[in-house]
Amino acid sequence: MERELITIVTPMAPRATKRTTLAPRKSATLNNARIGLLDNNKPNADRFLESVGALLKQRYEGVELIAKRKMTRTGADGLQEFADRCDVVINAFAD
Predict the structure, then answer these.
(1) How do 88-92 and 64-69 pair as beta strands?
(2) What tens digit of pLDDT does each residue of 11-41 get?
(3) Residues 21/74, Cβ–Cβ less than 8 Å
(4) Contacts with 62 (C-beta within 8 Å, 6 or more apart), sequence order
């Protein structure tokens, strides 16, 4: 009886880690920061950002949340003006 050889291929790459430094920060804390919450218009991104915003308000004093929904995939959508109004921006993307 002839045996058939089956080759199994996995699409998973080996794990790789990379150490890097954080980008320079204007401030060491988020106290009194204007935090932008950028929603990419995917399902539930707004709900996720609302939860993140609530946690930030609990943990840091004087946080101001500025929400924006990005309506297009490629257009700038006023993103530079949005970023200029914020000290920090949190972007939610994916489904």
Answers:
(1) unpaired
(2) 888 888 888 887 787 788 999 999 999 998 8
(3) no
(4) 31, 32, 33
Question: Measured between alpha carbons, how far is 35 from 30 in angstroms, rounded to an integer?
Answer: 8
At residue 7 the predicted structure's pLDDT band, cuts being 50, 70 and 90, is: confident
**Exposed/middle/buried for 47, CB within 10 Å: 0-12, 13-18, 19+?**
exposed
SS3 67: strand
> According to the model, what pLDDT value does residue 38 have?
93
Residue with tokens 């954080």: 22
CA 81 to chain centre: 18
CA distance 69 to 82: 11
